[in-house]
Amino acid sequence: MGTNKTYYRRNLPHYQPEGYTFFITFRLTGSLPINVxxxxxxxxxxxxxxxxxxxxxxxxxxxYLEAKWNYFEKFDSFLDKYSNNNFLKNEVVARLVxxxxxxxxxxxxxxxxxxxxPNHVHTVFTPVDRDxxxxxxxxxxVDRDxxxxxxNIANNSDINVALQFPIVTNILRLLKGSTARECNKILNRTGxxxxxxxxxxxxxxxxELNRIIEYILNNPVRAKLVxxxxxxxxxxxxxL
Length: 240
Description:
The chain is α+β, with helices and mostly antiparallel strands. The protein contains seven helices and seven strands, in the order βββαααββααβααβ. 41% of the residues lie in helices and 15% in strands. Strand 4 (109-116) and strand 5 (120-127) form a beta hairpin. The protein is globular, with a radius of gyration of 18 Å.
């Protein structure tokens, strides 16, 4: 696993240590207006800046995690309100993504929970202890999202792309790449399907895991898509 990074930054910082369980949210391209995204990022940045004055590192870390979760909740709430590019409302598309997430269970990760919403996906999994930069690497770009340009990555080969990111990012790259092409075929469209960046959060305790699972499964209820969580056909939890 030595080639995989633990921390990297794109537009947002990503901390992905090995051996942990992750809460991941990824969304469709164009699912939120740019002005909404920029406003949320600015609020979050200012909040984090205010925390720098705290003397206690323990309090600072606690407040940082709280700020990060508050940012995510606002972000997720906006996703539920907007109808931009709700491609996952198409049942054939949703089924393809659902099956693709399940298919990778015990191959790339130990899957715990997921929920497919009209324009985004929540999932919780623990990466399998193997090097996705090589052993799970696709051949001939089989699992790359060809709707996106990777010209900013040196030499632009799948191996070089994989070596630049930690294992969670590689898992998402493979999942999003393969589903993007197939979903575009179903919808008879071209261009980007998924937004390039995802939200990832390290789950640090059983209590936090249970809280996040409940949050995920109740997303369709909060979005007023169903009255009860068990009515939503695009949710899955291994332990329920």
